[in-house]
Every structure is written in C-alpha cells, then in structure tokens.
Amino acid sequence: MKPDNLKTRIFLDSGNPEETREILELLGFLDGQTTNPSLIAKNPEAQKRLELGDKFSAEEVNDFYKDVIEKIETIIPEGSLSIEVYADKDTLVEDILTQARQMNTWSDNAYIKLPIIQSGLEAAEVLTKEGVRVNMTLCFSQQQAAAVYSATAGARADSVYLSPFVGRLDDKGINGMSLIKNIHNLYKNSDKHVSILSASIRSLDHLLASIAYGADIVTVPGKILRQWAEAGMPVPDESYKYSAELEDIEYEDLDMQSDWKNFNIQHNLTDAGLQKFADDWNSLVK
Ligand code: E4P
Question: Rounded to whole angstroms, how far apart are CA atoms 183 and 202?
Fold first, then answer.
C-alpha cells in the first residue's frame, strides 16, 4: 500500500508489462509508468525477435509499441503512461506532431514524451494548446526547465511533466540531484502546470533524495523499487542527507515569463541522449 505520508508519485521506468504486473503486486500501488525507445528495445519479446534475426517493419514496430502501452494500461488503468515519439536532430516539427497526435490515442492517460530541442518545444507549444499532455524529456539544465515552463504556459495543472535525468549527470561527475533541487526552487512560485519528474534513477539514494527534495513524481527502474520495498518503503523528509561526492550545479535565477526562445536549450547530454534513443529504436527496424 502507498505510504500515507508519501506525496511524490511513484512511476515504473520500464518497457515491459510483465514488470508492471510484478511491481504493482510488490508495492500494492503504482501511479504510472514511463517508457522510451531504449526501454522498448529492451522488451523481452522484442529481444526474442531480434535474436531470431526477425526485425520489425516500421509499421510493425509502431504496433508493437502500441500493444505494450495497451497491455500496461490494462494492469494500471488509472496510471499515467508516458509514450515517447521518435526524433533525431533532423526530425521536423510536423512529423513530431503527427506521431504525438497518433500516440495520444493509444491511452486515455497518455503523456507524450518530446525531447527538449527546438522542434520538441515548438511541438509542445502546439500540442498543449490542443489539450495533449506532454512529458519533456532529456532535461539537463535549468535553462531547459525554464524554456519548457514558458513554451507550455497556459496549460492545465499537471498537464506537463519535466524530466531531469539525474543518473546521466552523475555519470559525468555532476550532481544530478542538485538539478532537481534547483528546478524545485526555480518553480517555487509556479502555477503548477509543469510537474517535476525525477528520471534516470540509478540508486535507492536517488529515489529517497527525489522524495526528500520535493519531486512531484519519480520514475524508477524495477530493480530500485525492489530495493525500496525490501527496505520497507521508507519516506524521508527534507532533512534527508544525500551525500554524493559530485560537483553541484549552481542555482540560476531565471525569469520564466520570458519567451522560451530566449533560453539556451542546447545541452550536449540532450544531443547524445537523442542520438542514443534514435539508435536503439533503429536497431529494431529492418
Ligand atoms: C524516463 O523517463 C527516462 O527516459 C529514463 O529514466 C532514462 O533513464 P536512463 O538514463 O537510465 O536511460
């Protein structure tokens, strides 16, 4: 059962519906699930096909992703479901919009994941006006967080997620949790249309610190949720001591009312992450 004092929503970070079932049983609750092209490529059925040398056609891979989402929805019918568009650096806004509108029909609880690049933000601006909920992914900086807030201004409360990638910053020696803290501070007077979704979680410490730092949502691999369950599902408060020996990111005071085009949305980890998602997806296709 969900601990009474837990305000942060807990999502599973996985492309495997079997894991959704297992984690739901283990925790007794699950608020949602995030998927991405790499996680879909890791799905055991997809892997089995690849081992047999039987790659998907472009249409089949789309149907496969849709089927995965539908299976997850039957297990957590009330749960939020994040579905990611295919995009590389050359993908046009129109293409992102077509995919997003299509994916949005796959589930009543869909949040469409868009990368924080120029075309992704342009698409977010259009889609949120149409009432489509979005999850802005591959966030590595406060400038990107401010741009997302501004590009989606006017959207309903909690209809935009912002996904800062904690673990991938840690991998570079930068304290990913300090980005969560900074964005939480930046958003302190916000109208709450953007919720902070702590992503790229690699340890129980990341999960606990995300809760303690006031993330609205945290998406967590099954392995870490099993550790949390084993520890008795602890819910730390703000006094939680997160102790990574990594370089903190300095806080930047940004004016989120400014036009999103005024922010510097470029980040090398966003570019690398975009490429990796595209490569993993393309590895499935003939
Ligand atoms: C979820 O929304 C993200 O895509 C995911 O947490 C990324 O995790 P990774 O950095 O471990 O690939």
Answer: 20
